[in-house]
């Protein structure tokens, strides 16, 4: 299982400083989401459980869970598969926010967390009971974020192809210079044939 958080908006700006960067997503994310066995299993709503601070008392774990949610992070596991996921989302200091809502249902917290798993943009959506520290959750295909990452991938591939063409052109220029230099050296070291010129004045004639 490969899981990545989403990066900040300056990611595209950093692309110009590298020759090649491994893609974060696959070319066809939706097809991968529908065909990947693990993603298909996690797409089904199933029981989840809070997994942090297991050595603490229940009351202390409840406080830690609420505190973590308010700060924008927690950790849950799918009981059916045993997959443990660290969830990150926007903090909700006022009791509700984009990724965390304590006010939607009494005694529960609803969480939405976005990340990349197995090369696909996904969204964890679910709720947990504040006392039992368990609930229901699932993974959904995050089409909105998938379009963003797809644009980044496209730009990255264009950059790579442009840099590759520049590299190949530089190689051709270098090779032409090398061939020219070798040709000049061979011409300079080539031995010259000496010619014997006929000089009639230097000839001697004997009379009998």
Write a brief structural summary.
The chain has 208 residues and is of the alpha+beta class.
Give the arrangement of secondary structure elements.
Elements: E1 3-4, H1 11-15, H2 29-35, H3 37-43, E2 46-50, H4 58-71, E3 73-78, E4 84-88, E5 100-101, E6 108-117, E7 120-129, E8 134-141, H5 143-189
Antiparallel strand pairs: 1-6, 2-3, 2-8, 3-4, 5-6, 6-7, 7-8
Structure, described:
- With 208 residues, the chain is α+β, with helices and mostly antiparallel strands.
- Helix content is 38%, strand content 23%.
- It is elongated and about 95 Å long.
- The protein starts with a strand and ends in a 19-residue tail after the last helix.
């Amino acid at each position: 299982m490969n899981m990545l958080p989403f990066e900040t908006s300056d990611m595209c700006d950093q692309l110009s400083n590298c020759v090649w960067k491994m893609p974060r997503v696959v070319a066809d994310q939706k097809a991968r989401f529908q065909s990947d066995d693990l993603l298909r299993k996690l797409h089904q709503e199933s029981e989840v459980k809070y997994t942090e601070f297991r050595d603490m008392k229940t009351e202390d774990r409840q406080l830690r869970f609420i505190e973590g949610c308010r700060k924008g992070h927690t950790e849950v596991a799918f009981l059916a598969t045993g997959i443990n996921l660290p969830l990150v989302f926007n903090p909700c200091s006022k009791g509700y926010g984009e990724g965390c809502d304590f006010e939607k249902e009494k005694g529960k917290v609803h969480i939405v967390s976005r990340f990349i798993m197995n090369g696909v943009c996904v969204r964890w959506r679910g709720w947990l009971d504040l006392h039992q520290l368990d609930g229901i959750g699932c993974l959904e295909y995050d089409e909105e974020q998938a379009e963003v990452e797809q644009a980044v991938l496209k730009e990255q591939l264009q950059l790579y192809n442009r840099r590759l063409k520049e590299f190949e052109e530089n190689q051709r220029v270098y090779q032409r210079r090398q061939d020219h230099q070798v040709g000049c050296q061979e011409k300079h070291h080539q031995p010259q044939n000496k010619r014997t010129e006929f000089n009639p004045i230097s000839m001697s004639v004997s009379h009998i």
